[in-house]
Amino acid sequence: MQQNHPYFSDLVNIIETAANKHGYKLYLCNSNDNEDNIAYFLKSIIDNYIQTVIINSLAITEKDIKYLEKHDINVITIDRTNVDNQPNTISVDHFRGSYIATEHLIKNCECENILFMSGEITEKSSASRFKGYQSAMQEYLLSHQVQLLEGNFTYKSGFDLAYNTLNQKNDVHGIVCANDAMAIGAISACHKLGIEIPNQIQIIGYDNCDLSQYSTPSLTTINQLDSKIGEIIMNSIKENKTIQFEYTPEIVIRDSTKA
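Above: the chain sequence. Below: its structure as tokens.
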């Protein structure tokens, strides 16, 4: 796992709930996408006779996975890994998720000037979400300007990007954010600037973490956290079957958008 963001906490809870139900114990390794941490945890996994490793980290390499498999450890990757052709994986259609977020702002909320607030754009999921935003902008708006604000998925970067941009521009209708943390940071920036949500600007997040429903206003977001992921993983472990599952995100409409 990686980083102290609400999405990862919620993902761990989903997996842990399913593991407890099926009689498995969860050994959590928070790598923060750091190679030194990963090297330590790989050795710890071997030393503690772990049978299955569930990986959600950009810093894991194909060499790391082969090292685990060499020790007869089952490897399941979730979404964020940069390893291609992994046979045992759960992925998310991030292009589609970001597309429907942008489509919602344009078709249902009458937004035209829409910003995309991203994490590191070199990350696969960030790039896919940005492409989904671009595609919807091109499809629905005859005259459009693609606008990318690049941050790092944190509350602070969402706040800083929104505050610095909206303090200079008063013609922004909507913001599509690459995760809920940045969206909540953007909402806070709007409060500080006296910008009313959703009357003056509309904001959509991405994750549907638990915290999103408790922001003020509550956050319209893209759900990529499905509780059935935990069951899929545990059933595959119990039945010794491989996973090739792609989840299609859905929009959750709350108060940060008009429709």
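The radius of gyration is 19 Å.
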